[in-house]
Amino acid sequence: MAEISRPRPGGNMRLVDALQYRLPIAGIVSILHRASGVMMFVLLPFIIWMFDTSVTSEISFDRFASAFTAGIGFVPGVLVKVVALGLIWAYLHHIVAGLRHLWMDATHSVSKAQGSSSAKATLVLSLLPTALLGAKLFGWY
Fold this sequence. Notes:
This protein has 141 residues and is an all-alpha fold. It is 73% helix and 0% strand. It is elongated and about 75 Å long.
């Protein structure tokens, strides 16, 4: 007897429907983990430039430090600070979310409640230090 195939539910989902779907907090953290990895990869040339410029000599360090106030070429200093703050968040979030995944894999903790609570902890442990370092970066303290 031939098997009747049914269309998958959601198979014909439109973009409008997908944007209205409410993703659980664990799913949001998982997507942010991927996004932070992509962000670090894409900005790798900027990271290498920052490291090279900051350690080459005293003159190049002064050029590095002035990039955060005067900017780089046509890019204003505020935008350099925003990109640096984005990198700070990306590193912190990627590390904390990666440790969360390793801990879940090692302990086989995959319950819905545990996933939600660890996702909330991941957001707090990455956003709070980012806010503190951002305040320092922008000279608020």
